[in-house]
Amino acid sequence: MREKRITTGNEVLDSMLGGGFLPGQMVVIAGPAGSGKTISALQFIHANLTEGRRCLFISASDSEESIITNSFRFGWDLKQFIDKNLLTIASIKLADALPTLSPDILSAGGLYSSSLEELPKVIKNSKAEIIAIDSITEFNDVCTSELERRTRILNLRRIISEIGATALLVAEVSPDGITTKYGIAEYVADGLILLSRYHTEELSHYLHTIQIIKMRWIPHSREIRVYDITDKGLSIRSPLYTTLASGGKLR
Ligand SMILES: Nc1ncnc2c1ncn2[C@@H]1O[C@H](COP(=O)(O)OP(=O)(O)OP(=O)(O)O)[C@@H](O)[C@H]1O
Ligand SMILES: [Mg+2]
After folding, report:
1. Among 46, 85, 195, 240, which is disulfide-ready with 224 (CB 3.0 to 4.6 Å)?
2. For 22-199, CATH number?
3. Which of 10, 28, 29, 39 has most ligand 1 atoms within 8 Å of its beta carbon, as the pocket-test mutant?
4. What is the pLDDT of residues 83-125, one digit of tens each?
5. Ligand 1 centre and the CA of 233: distance in Å?
6. By mean pLDDT, which of 74-83, 96-105, 188-197, 220-229 is the weakest?
7. Is pTM, for the whole model, over 0.85?
8. Looking at ligand 1, which residue's alpha carbon is closest to its atom 31?
9. Could you identify the atom of ligand 1 that is nearest to the CA of residue 172?
10. Whose alpha carbon is nearest atom 16 of ligand 1?
11. Residues 137, 154: Cα–Cα separation, whole Å
């Protein structure tokens, strides 16, 4: 019998994974600015809502209203799922945290600790089967030490496991383009999907590529595929080598 998989929201990515994520996996999708990380996370959420799964979308920068409005541009009507109690959008605004914190919290040490503590609470209370966090880097940014960052990610991993959810964590990449900004999430996570950007040799345009760097417990494609961002989300095309074989050159 074929084991149950959780769709990524993208047919090609599902097939690269042999059907999708394993239930219970925590996967990081990392990429540079504008590479389609938020769109991928919303595509994942929308596809799973359509399959009747209870979902939680956590954003550290966008309001619920903005997420609903912008998802609609891709044909993803999130409002209907909120009305059916299938979707919770939690907007945990870290930038707004400082002025709202009480002197007690400030004197307790962590400027943003109350916002950071909201994250595991929201997850625990959600009873969601599917979770997307956009982005884990923003939560990492406001931690005051490497130890705090690592401890909080490990704690998050534990809570996600406890509720049995499958999670996609958006992360920014470091300047090398191959690791996440803090280089922690990809080790704690079961999987890492890397989005990259290459300039063509003549500098006329750039190409987006996607690759599965790791996915614990399952065999997966190691191809580097070219993708476009379209009004239906990420559209994964041919492997990069076929683009190069047909005369395309990268810098
Ligand atoms: N309808 C559309 N059709 C084609 N491309 C689009 C469309 N909407 C957005 N894009 C492209 O998607 C990019 C934004 O995608 P997204 O917000 O998911 O990126 P991101 O990786 O989350 O960026 P950031 O790091 O800034 O959060 C835009 O910069 C644009 O290039
Ligand atoms: Mg984004």
Report:
1. 240
2. 3.40.50.300
3. 39
4. 999 999 999 977 665 555 555 555 455 556 778 888 999 999 9
5. 9
6. 96-105
7. yes
8. 34
9. 25
10. 36
11. 14
